[in-house]
Amino acid sequence: MQSIQMSVTGRLMSGKSGKLNSFQMTFYTGPIAFATLLPFAFITEFNIFVESVTNKPIASLGFLLGSCCVAVVYNVVLFQSVGTLSSVGTAILGNVKIVLLLFLSSLILGELTGWSANQFLGCVLTFASAGAYSYIKATAPKPAPAPAPEPAPAPSQQPRLEGPGHGYIKQEGV
């Protein structure tokens, strides 16, 4: 689902009908996401939310506002990366991030000894694939830039049009 979102976002941010920036994308997608997720949140978390608001109203409000701020920042960063890297580059970056977080948390917590060969192979494949993608993108031939239009001649170099209909009246004897 997120890959569809990134592809649509990439199209909208680089569209020919007008480019949207990351803040505009967040502004337009926020209400749609809210309306889509509200029924599920109401069904699954309404009782927990009411209990939390009645027991700790300030903490609940702080948690809700903090979560909203984090969501806005996340969306802006996501849309910026899609606009900069493309949807494929952003997906690869997300995969590398997840694998790196899993690897570092296992390394810090001393759980690497419990990893299987498949987990190590998955890490190696993720990093090798990201490196290969970066190499291919960096070495791909760039399209030739469009030729620049010739500048208009300076007003003193432009020919003077004489005669009727050209706005210049030739005076006799001058």
From TrEMBL:
Keyword flag Phosphoprotein: no
Transmembrane segments: 20-43, 58-79, 91-109, 115-136
Alphabetized UniProt keyword annotations: Membrane, Transmembrane, Transmembrane helix
GO CC, one annotated term: membrane
Limits of the EamA domain: 7-130
Membrane topology: Multi-pass membrane protein
Record's compositionally biased regions (Pro residues): 142-156
InterPro entries: EamA_dom, TPT_transporter
Region (Disordered) residue spans: 140-174
The name this protein goes by in its record: EamA domain-containing protein
Originating organism: Emiliania huxleyi (Coccolithophore)
